[in-house]
Amino acid sequence: MSREPIDVKISDLTPKHRHVNLRVKVLSIDEPRTVVSRRDGSRHRVADAVVGDETGIIKMALWDDAIDLVSVGDIIKLTNAYVAIFRGRMQLAVGRYGSIEVVGGEDIEVFEDNDMSERLPPRARGRRADVARREARKRRRPR
Fold it and tell me: Which parts of the chain sit beneath pLDDT 70?
């Protein structure tokens, strides 16, 4: 059963979001690293990026050719993206059924104070979620 992707803003994202379209600005891209697939042993390049729109920012993993496709400052359109949980945090992913397109156009004034990657997903359970909650509480406590 195929679902039609819906247009959303970053602040609307939850861990359950699948099949979403976003127009975002690339704020940063880390140096690519090489990882080995657990599925078939193949090697891939992956780089963590931060993207944002008028409502917030979120981390995103760029894989292989997508790393060379985008640059910091680009306005990109993510089609059929989804939210993944990685190390207890939400992040955007495109996967094999989605796409990334550099579209340019009107600049986006990014609201950087709403980091959706720092928000714990609702109903997160398990040891990793407990550790992440504890770390988040420590960061919020005044010293």
Answer: 1-2, 119-143
pTM: 0.79
Write the single-letter amino acid at 113.
D
Which position has the token pair 């496709």?
A: 69
What three-state secondary structure class fits 136?
helix
Q: Do 35 and 110 contact (CB within 8 A), yes or no? A: no
Neighbours of 130 (CB within 10 A): 12
Q: Which two three-digit tokens encode residue 37?
A: 């697939």
pLDDT at 111: 95
- Read off φ and ψ for residue 127, nearest 5 degrees: -60, -45
Domains parsed from the chain with CATH numbers:
6-118 (2.40.50.140)
Residue 136 is encoded by which pair of tokens?
Answer: 């988040």
pLDDT tens-digit series, residues 53-90:
999 999 999 999 999 999 999 999 999 999 999 888 99
Q: Residue type at 68?
A: D
